[in-house]
Design goal:
about 450 residues; mainly alpha
Length: about 450
Protein backbone atom coordinates (compact mmCIF):
# COMPACT_ATOMS: atom_id res chain seq x y z
CA UNK A 1 0.00 0.00 0.00
CA UNK A 2 2.83 2.34 0.85
CA UNK A 3 4.34 1.99 -2.63
CA UNK A 4 1.05 2.97 -4.28
CA UNK A 5 0.82 6.02 -2.04
CA UNK A 6 4.39 6.84 -3.04
CA UNK A 7 3.47 6.67 -6.75
CA UNK A 8 0.52 8.96 -6.07
CA UNK A 9 2.92 11.28 -4.27
CA UNK A 10 5.20 11.45 -7.31
CA UNK A 11 2.27 12.31 -9.59
CA UNK A 12 0.83 14.94 -7.24
CA UNK A 13 4.28 16.40 -6.66
CA UNK A 14 4.89 16.91 -10.37
CA UNK A 15 1.46 18.56 -10.66
CA UNK A 16 2.37 20.79 -7.70
CA UNK A 17 5.70 21.63 -9.33
CA UNK A 18 4.00 22.73 -12.55
CA UNK A 19 1.30 24.71 -10.72
CA UNK A 20 3.73 26.63 -8.49
CA UNK A 21 6.04 27.42 -11.42
CA UNK A 22 3.00 28.67 -13.31
CA UNK A 23 2.25 30.90 -10.33
CA UNK A 24 5.83 32.19 -10.66
CA UNK A 25 7.06 30.79 -7.35
CA UNK A 26 10.85 30.55 -7.23
CA UNK A 27 12.01 27.17 -8.55
CA UNK A 28 14.31 26.54 -5.59
CA UNK A 29 11.33 26.84 -3.23
CA UNK A 30 9.19 24.73 -5.57
CA UNK A 31 11.79 21.96 -5.64
CA UNK A 32 12.04 22.02 -1.84
CA UNK A 33 8.26 21.90 -1.38
CA UNK A 34 7.99 19.10 -3.93
CA UNK A 35 10.79 17.08 -2.32
CA UNK A 36 9.24 17.37 1.16
CA UNK A 37 5.83 16.39 -0.20
CA UNK A 38 7.24 13.31 -2.01
CA UNK A 39 9.22 12.21 1.04
CA UNK A 40 6.17 12.42 3.30
CA UNK A 41 3.99 10.53 0.83
CA UNK A 42 6.69 7.87 0.46
CA UNK A 43 7.29 7.35 4.16
CA UNK A 44 10.76 8.87 3.99
CA UNK A 45 12.35 11.12 6.60
CA UNK A 46 11.81 14.60 5.07
CA UNK A 47 14.86 16.01 6.85
CA UNK A 48 17.06 13.26 5.40
CA UNK A 49 15.43 13.62 1.97
CA UNK A 50 16.33 17.33 1.90
CA UNK A 51 19.68 17.37 3.71
CA UNK A 52 21.09 14.25 2.03
CA UNK A 53 19.28 13.18 -1.15
CA UNK A 54 18.20 16.61 -2.39
CA UNK A 55 21.39 18.42 -1.44
CA UNK A 56 23.55 15.64 -2.86
CA UNK A 57 21.86 16.04 -6.23
CA UNK A 58 22.02 19.82 -6.09
CA UNK A 59 25.62 19.96 -4.90
CA UNK A 60 26.76 17.21 -7.23
CA UNK A 61 25.40 19.08 -10.23
CA UNK A 62 27.14 22.31 -9.21
CA UNK A 63 30.45 20.49 -8.74
CA UNK A 64 30.13 18.74 -12.10
CA UNK A 65 28.73 21.55 -14.24
CA UNK A 66 29.29 24.80 -12.33
CA UNK A 67 32.38 25.79 -14.27
CA UNK A 68 30.66 25.07 -17.58
CA UNK A 69 27.83 27.41 -16.59
CA UNK A 70 30.26 30.19 -15.70
CA UNK A 71 32.28 29.82 -18.91
CA UNK A 72 29.15 29.59 -21.04
CA UNK A 73 27.71 32.73 -19.46
CA UNK A 74 31.00 34.57 -20.00
CA UNK A 75 31.04 33.48 -23.65
CA UNK A 76 27.47 34.64 -24.18
CA UNK A 77 28.26 37.93 -22.49
CA UNK A 78 31.33 38.79 -24.58
CA UNK A 79 29.52 37.73 -27.76
CA UNK A 80 26.76 40.13 -26.78
CA UNK A 81 28.94 43.03 -25.59
CA UNK A 82 31.19 43.00 -28.67
CA UNK A 83 28.24 43.01 -31.07
CA UNK A 84 29.27 39.62 -32.46
CA UNK A 85 25.95 37.99 -31.57
CA UNK A 86 24.01 40.87 -33.09
CA UNK A 87 26.09 40.73 -36.28
CA UNK A 88 25.44 37.01 -36.67
CA UNK A 89 21.74 37.56 -36.00
CA UNK A 90 21.44 40.34 -38.57
CA UNK A 91 23.41 38.34 -41.15
CA UNK A 92 21.28 35.24 -40.70
CA UNK A 93 18.11 37.32 -40.72
CA UNK A 94 19.19 38.97 -43.97
CA UNK A 95 19.50 35.53 -45.57
CA UNK A 96 16.26 34.04 -44.26
CA UNK A 97 14.34 37.27 -44.94
CA UNK A 98 14.92 36.74 -48.67
CA UNK A 99 13.42 33.26 -48.65
CA UNK A 100 9.82 32.56 -49.54
CA UNK A 101 8.95 31.46 -46.00
CA UNK A 102 11.35 33.67 -44.07
CA UNK A 103 9.77 33.28 -40.64
CA UNK A 104 9.74 29.51 -40.95
CA UNK A 105 13.42 29.23 -41.88
CA UNK A 106 14.46 31.81 -39.30
CA UNK A 107 12.87 29.83 -36.48
CA UNK A 108 14.31 26.59 -37.90
CA UNK A 109 17.80 28.10 -37.63
CA UNK A 110 17.54 27.84 -33.84
CA UNK A 111 17.33 24.02 -33.62
CA UNK A 112 20.08 23.85 -36.23
CA UNK A 113 22.37 25.96 -34.02
CA UNK A 114 21.47 23.84 -30.98
CA UNK A 115 22.04 20.70 -33.04
CA UNK A 116 25.56 21.64 -34.12
CA UNK A 117 26.64 22.72 -30.64
CA UNK A 118 25.01 19.71 -28.97
CA UNK A 119 26.67 17.24 -31.33
CA UNK A 120 30.13 18.33 -30.21
CA UNK A 121 29.21 17.99 -26.56
CA UNK A 122 28.01 21.41 -25.39
CA UNK A 123 25.03 21.01 -23.04
CA UNK A 124 21.70 22.70 -23.70
CA UNK A 125 21.98 24.71 -20.51
CA UNK A 126 25.24 26.10 -21.86
CA UNK A 127 24.11 26.66 -25.46
CA UNK A 128 21.23 28.93 -24.51
CA UNK A 129 23.53 31.71 -23.30
CA UNK A 130 24.79 32.28 -26.84
CA UNK A 131 21.81 31.30 -29.00
CA UNK A 132 19.22 33.31 -27.09
CA UNK A 133 21.06 36.56 -27.87
CA UNK A 134 21.19 35.73 -31.57
CA UNK A 135 17.55 34.65 -31.55
CA UNK A 136 16.23 37.78 -29.87
CA UNK A 137 17.68 40.07 -32.52
CA UNK A 138 16.52 37.84 -35.39
CA UNK A 139 13.00 37.45 -34.07
CA UNK A 140 12.64 41.16 -33.40
CA UNK A 141 14.07 42.09 -36.80
CA UNK A 142 11.57 39.85 -38.66
CA UNK A 143 8.67 40.29 -36.19
CA UNK A 144 8.52 36.59 -35.31
CA UNK A 145 6.58 35.52 -32.18
CA UNK A 146 9.08 35.26 -29.32
CA UNK A 147 6.95 32.43 -27.92
CA UNK A 148 8.50 30.20 -30.59
CA UNK A 149 11.99 30.47 -29.07
CA UNK A 150 11.65 27.05 -27.31
CA UNK A 151 11.92 25.46 -30.76
CA UNK A 152 15.67 25.93 -30.43
CA UNK A 153 16.20 23.27 -27.79
CA UNK A 154 14.36 20.75 -29.97
CA UNK A 155 17.64 20.46 -31.90
CA UNK A 156 19.29 18.71 -28.94
CA UNK A 157 17.33 15.47 -29.39
CA UNK A 158 18.32 14.78 -33.02
CA UNK A 159 21.93 15.62 -32.18
CA UNK A 160 22.27 13.29 -29.21
CA UNK A 161 20.72 10.25 -30.97
CA UNK A 162 23.02 10.63 -34.00
CA UNK A 163 26.02 8.32 -33.95
CA UNK A 164 29.28 10.00 -33.01
CA UNK A 165 27.62 12.63 -30.83
CA UNK A 166 29.78 13.83 -27.95
CA UNK A 167 26.69 14.78 -25.94
CA UNK A 168 26.85 13.39 -22.41
CA UNK A 169 23.84 11.07 -22.80
CA UNK A 170 25.38 9.33 -25.82
CA UNK A 171 28.70 8.96 -24.00
CA UNK A 172 27.00 7.43 -20.94
CA UNK A 173 24.88 4.91 -22.87
CA UNK A 174 27.55 3.76 -25.32
CA UNK A 175 30.12 3.40 -22.57
CA UNK A 176 27.63 1.48 -20.44
CA UNK A 177 26.88 -0.91 -23.31
CA UNK A 178 30.53 -1.38 -24.20
CA UNK A 179 30.45 0.12 -27.70
CA UNK A 180 31.89 3.19 -29.44
CA UNK A 181 30.11 6.50 -30.00
CA UNK A 182 29.81 5.68 -33.72
CA UNK A 183 28.23 2.22 -33.43
CA UNK A 184 24.73 1.99 -34.88
CA UNK A 185 25.42 4.92 -37.22
CA UNK A 186 23.10 3.83 -40.06
CA UNK A 187 20.20 3.25 -37.65
CA UNK A 188 20.88 6.55 -35.93
CA UNK A 189 20.81 8.49 -39.22
CA UNK A 190 17.33 7.15 -40.00
CA UNK A 191 16.10 8.05 -36.51
CA UNK A 192 17.72 11.48 -36.87
CA UNK A 193 15.89 12.14 -40.16
CA UNK A 194 12.58 10.98 -38.67
CA UNK A 195 13.00 13.41 -35.76
CA UNK A 196 13.89 16.30 -38.07
CA UNK A 197 10.88 15.57 -40.29
CA UNK A 198 8.56 15.60 -37.28
CA UNK A 199 10.03 18.89 -36.05
CA UNK A 200 9.79 20.61 -39.44
CA UNK A 201 6.17 19.55 -39.89
CA UNK A 202 5.22 20.78 -36.41
CA UNK A 203 6.92 24.13 -37.00
CA UNK A 204 5.01 24.59 -40.26
CA UNK A 205 1.66 24.32 -38.48
CA UNK A 206 2.79 26.54 -35.58
CA UNK A 207 3.93 29.30 -37.93
CA UNK A 208 0.62 29.10 -39.79
CA UNK A 209 -1.29 29.36 -36.50
CA UNK A 210 0.68 32.45 -35.45
CA UNK A 211 0.09 34.10 -38.82
CA UNK A 212 -3.62 33.37 -38.54
CA UNK A 213 -3.65 35.17 -35.17
CA UNK A 214 -1.55 38.01 -36.65
CA UNK A 215 0.92 37.44 -33.80
CA UNK A 216 4.34 39.06 -34.10
CA UNK A 217 7.31 39.52 -31.75
CA UNK A 218 4.86 41.06 -29.30
CA UNK A 219 3.09 40.35 -27.01
CA UNK A 220 5.16 37.27 -26.03
CA UNK A 221 8.36 39.28 -26.43
CA UNK A 222 7.20 42.16 -24.23
CA UNK A 223 9.13 41.16 -21.11
CA UNK A 224 12.41 40.38 -22.87
CA UNK A 225 12.08 43.62 -24.82
CA UNK A 226 11.55 45.57 -21.61
CA UNK A 227 13.92 43.80 -19.22
CA UNK A 228 16.45 42.09 -21.52
CA UNK A 229 18.02 38.64 -21.07
CA UNK A 230 19.62 39.29 -17.68
CA UNK A 231 23.05 39.64 -19.24
CA UNK A 232 23.84 42.78 -17.31
CA UNK A 233 23.17 46.42 -18.08
CA UNK A 234 25.13 47.93 -20.92
CA UNK A 235 24.32 49.98 -24.02
CA UNK A 236 23.31 47.97 -27.07
CA UNK A 237 26.20 47.49 -29.52
CA UNK A 238 26.48 50.34 -31.98
CA UNK A 239 25.01 49.09 -35.26
CA UNK A 240 27.61 51.12 -37.14
CA UNK A 241 30.50 49.56 -35.23
CA UNK A 242 29.61 45.88 -35.45
CA UNK A 243 32.37 43.41 -36.37
CA UNK A 244 32.49 41.76 -39.79
CA UNK A 245 30.68 38.47 -40.14
CA UNK A 246 33.92 36.44 -40.17
CA UNK A 247 35.21 38.19 -37.05
CA UNK A 248 31.85 37.62 -35.36
CA UNK A 249 31.59 33.95 -36.39
CA UNK A 250 35.14 32.81 -35.56
CA UNK A 251 34.53 32.75 -31.77
CA UNK A 252 31.30 30.80 -32.29
CA UNK A 253 33.06 28.07 -34.28
CA UNK A 254 36.16 27.98 -32.08
CA UNK A 255 34.69 25.56 -29.49
CA UNK A 256 33.22 23.41 -32.25
CA UNK A 257 36.60 22.94 -33.91
CA UNK A 258 38.44 22.34 -30.65
CA UNK A 259 35.94 19.80 -29.35
CA UNK A 260 35.24 17.97 -32.61
CA UNK A 261 38.73 17.82 -34.09
CA UNK A 262 41.04 18.08 -31.10
CA UNK A 263 38.75 16.39 -28.54
CA UNK A 264 39.27 19.34 -26.20
CA UNK A 265 37.49 19.66 -22.88
CA UNK A 266 34.29 21.76 -23.12
CA UNK A 267 35.49 24.21 -20.47
CA UNK A 268 38.85 24.66 -22.21
CA UNK A 269 37.11 25.12 -25.57
CA UNK A 270 34.81 27.79 -24.15
CA UNK A 271 37.76 29.55 -22.50
CA UNK A 272 39.52 29.62 -25.87
CA UNK A 273 36.39 30.99 -27.55
CA UNK A 274 36.11 33.77 -24.96
CA UNK A 275 39.76 34.70 -25.46
CA UNK A 276 39.41 34.72 -29.23
CA UNK A 277 36.29 36.89 -29.06
CA UNK A 278 38.01 39.42 -26.78
CA UNK A 279 41.19 39.59 -28.85
CA UNK A 280 39.31 40.06 -32.12
CA UNK A 281 37.06 42.77 -30.65
CA UNK A 282 39.22 44.42 -28.00
CA UNK A 283 38.54 47.90 -29.39
CA UNK A 284 34.80 47.36 -29.14
CA UNK A 285 34.87 46.59 -25.41
CA UNK A 286 35.02 49.78 -23.37
CA UNK A 287 35.21 48.09 -19.94
CA UNK A 288 36.37 44.48 -20.12
CA UNK A 289 36.35 43.92 -16.35
CA UNK A 290 32.71 45.01 -16.08
CA UNK A 291 31.71 42.81 -19.00
CA UNK A 292 33.38 39.75 -17.47
CA UNK A 293 31.97 40.50 -14.04
CA UNK A 294 28.45 40.75 -15.41
CA UNK A 295 28.96 37.50 -17.31
CA UNK A 296 30.04 35.68 -14.17
CA UNK A 297 27.14 37.03 -12.12
CA UNK A 298 24.55 36.06 -14.73
CA UNK A 299 25.55 32.39 -14.44
CA UNK A 300 24.63 32.10 -10.77
CA UNK A 301 20.84 32.22 -11.07
CA UNK A 302 20.48 29.58 -13.82
CA UNK A 303 23.05 27.33 -12.12
CA UNK A 304 21.17 27.30 -8.81
CA UNK A 305 17.82 26.92 -10.56
CA UNK A 306 18.91 23.94 -12.63
CA UNK A 307 20.72 22.34 -9.67
CA UNK A 308 17.58 22.59 -7.54
CA UNK A 309 15.55 20.78 -10.21
CA UNK A 310 18.20 18.03 -10.35
CA UNK A 311 18.03 17.67 -6.55
CA UNK A 312 14.26 17.30 -6.79
CA UNK A 313 14.66 14.58 -9.44
CA UNK A 314 17.05 12.78 -7.11
CA UNK A 315 14.39 12.59 -4.40
CA UNK A 316 11.93 11.09 -6.90
CA UNK A 317 14.43 8.37 -7.82
CA UNK A 318 14.89 7.46 -4.15
CA UNK A 319 11.20 6.71 -3.49
CA UNK A 320 9.67 3.25 -3.09
CA UNK A 321 7.02 4.17 -5.67
CA UNK A 322 9.67 4.71 -8.32
CA UNK A 323 11.24 1.33 -7.49
CA UNK A 324 7.83 -0.32 -7.80
CA UNK A 325 7.35 1.14 -11.26
CA UNK A 326 10.66 -0.36 -12.33
CA UNK A 327 9.69 -3.80 -10.99
CA UNK A 328 6.33 -3.75 -12.76
CA UNK A 329 7.98 -3.41 -16.14
CA UNK A 330 9.69 -6.78 -15.74
CA UNK A 331 6.39 -8.54 -16.53
CA UNK A 332 6.23 -7.06 -20.06
CA UNK A 333 7.92 -8.31 -23.28
CA UNK A 334 11.64 -7.27 -23.26
CA UNK A 335 11.44 -4.68 -26.08
CA UNK A 336 8.29 -3.02 -24.73
CA UNK A 337 9.68 -3.20 -21.20
CA UNK A 338 12.93 -1.50 -22.27
CA UNK A 339 11.15 1.27 -24.19
CA UNK A 340 8.70 1.98 -21.37
CA UNK A 341 11.49 1.87 -18.79
CA UNK A 342 13.31 4.59 -20.70
CA UNK A 343 10.22 6.74 -21.17
CA UNK A 344 8.92 6.43 -17.60
CA UNK A 345 12.27 6.90 -15.90
CA UNK A 346 13.01 9.92 -18.04
CA UNK A 347 9.56 11.35 -17.29
CA UNK A 348 10.07 10.95 -13.55
CA UNK A 349 13.53 12.53 -13.30
CA UNK A 350 13.10 14.86 -16.31
CA UNK A 351 16.77 14.78 -17.22
CA UNK A 352 18.36 12.63 -19.93
CA UNK A 353 21.71 12.41 -18.17
CA UNK A 354 20.18 11.58 -14.79
CA UNK A 355 17.82 9.12 -16.44
CA UNK A 356 20.31 7.01 -18.33
CA UNK A 357 23.18 6.67 -15.89
CA UNK A 358 21.60 4.46 -13.19
CA UNK A 359 19.66 2.14 -15.54
CA UNK A 360 21.93 1.69 -18.57
CA UNK A 361 22.88 -1.83 -17.47
CA UNK A 362 19.21 -2.77 -17.00
CA UNK A 363 18.36 -1.43 -20.45
CA UNK A 364 21.25 -3.35 -21.97
CA UNK A 365 19.93 -6.61 -20.48
CA UNK A 366 16.35 -5.98 -21.62
CA UNK A 367 17.34 -5.18 -25.20
CA UNK A 368 19.67 -8.17 -25.29
CA UNK A 369 16.79 -10.39 -24.11
CA UNK A 370 14.78 -9.05 -27.06
CA UNK A 371 17.56 -10.17 -29.42
CA UNK A 372 18.71 -6.64 -30.20
CA UNK A 373 22.39 -5.77 -30.64
CA UNK A 374 24.13 -3.31 -28.34
CA UNK A 375 24.56 -0.82 -31.22
CA UNK A 376 20.84 -0.75 -32.03
CA UNK A 377 19.93 -0.87 -28.34
CA UNK A 378 22.03 2.22 -27.61
CA UNK A 379 20.06 4.27 -30.16
CA UNK A 380 16.71 3.00 -28.87
CA UNK A 381 17.72 3.73 -25.28
CA UNK A 382 18.50 7.32 -26.22
CA UNK A 383 15.33 7.76 -28.28
CA UNK A 384 12.98 6.35 -25.63
CA UNK A 385 14.58 8.29 -22.78
CA UNK A 386 15.07 11.63 -24.49
CA UNK A 387 11.94 11.81 -26.61
CA UNK A 388 10.20 14.56 -24.68
CA UNK A 389 10.68 17.29 -22.08
CA UNK A 390 8.62 17.21 -18.88
CA UNK A 391 7.43 20.37 -17.06
CA UNK A 392 9.95 19.86 -14.24
CA UNK A 393 12.89 19.52 -16.64
CA UNK A 394 15.67 21.80 -15.42
CA UNK A 395 16.42 22.97 -18.96
CA UNK A 396 12.84 24.18 -19.39
CA UNK A 397 12.98 26.08 -16.13
CA UNK A 398 16.27 27.68 -17.15
CA UNK A 399 15.16 28.45 -20.71
CA UNK A 400 11.86 30.08 -19.81
CA UNK A 401 13.55 32.10 -17.08
CA UNK A 402 16.24 33.50 -19.39
CA UNK A 403 13.80 34.03 -22.27
CA UNK A 404 11.27 35.68 -19.93
CA UNK A 405 8.45 33.63 -21.42
CA UNK A 406 5.11 32.68 -19.88
CA UNK A 407 5.58 29.33 -18.11
CA UNK A 408 2.20 27.88 -19.13
CA UNK A 409 2.60 28.47 -22.86
CA UNK A 410 6.33 27.79 -22.79
CA UNK A 411 5.97 24.36 -21.17
CA UNK A 412 3.49 23.31 -23.85
CA UNK A 413 5.85 24.43 -26.61
CA UNK A 414 8.84 22.67 -25.07
CA UNK A 415 6.82 19.46 -24.69
CA UNK A 416 5.38 19.27 -28.19
CA UNK A 417 8.64 20.27 -29.91
CA UNK A 418 10.35 17.30 -28.28
CA UNK A 419 7.42 14.85 -28.09
CA UNK A 420 6.44 14.97 -31.79
CA UNK A 421 10.00 14.46 -33.13
CA UNK A 422 10.70 11.94 -30.36
CA UNK A 423 7.64 9.79 -31.02
CA UNK A 424 8.31 9.96 -34.78
CA UNK A 425 11.82 8.60 -34.26
CA UNK A 426 10.64 6.02 -31.71
CA UNK A 427 7.89 4.73 -34.03
CA UNK A 428 10.31 4.41 -36.95
CA UNK A 429 12.80 2.60 -34.73
CA UNK A 430 10.24 0.08 -33.46
CA UNK A 431 8.98 -0.61 -37.00
CA UNK A 432 12.50 -1.17 -38.35
CA UNK A 433 13.33 -3.53 -35.47
CA UNK A 434 10.04 -5.40 -35.89
CA UNK A 435 10.79 -5.88 -39.61
CA UNK A 436 14.29 -7.13 -38.68
CA UNK A 437 15.90 -4.37 -40.75
CA UNK A 438 17.99 -3.55 -37.68
CA UNK A 439 18.54 -5.90 -34.77
Amino acid sequence: MGEYISILGIILSVILFVFLCYRKVNVVLVSLFGSIFISLMSGMNPFYAISETYMSGLGGFIVKYGLIFVMSALFGKVMDATGSARKIALSLASVTSRTRHCKYWTVFLLPVLYMVLSYVGVSGTAIIFTVIIIAKDMFKELDIPWALYPYGSAGIFPALILGGSAYSSNIIVTDGMGISLYDGMAFSVILFLAAIAGLMLLLFFDIKACEKRSEGFLPSGADIEKYGISLGDHPDPDSQNLPGIITAAVPLFTPLILILLLKANVVAALAAAITVCILLNIRRISDLITVLSQGAVMSYGPLITVSAAVGYAGVIKATSGFEMILRGLDNLPPLLSAVLLGMMTSAAVANSGSYISPIVSILSEKYAAAGISAATASRMALVSGCAYSMPHNSGIVNGLSLARLDYKRGVITYFKTTFIPGIAALAVGIVLISLKVFV
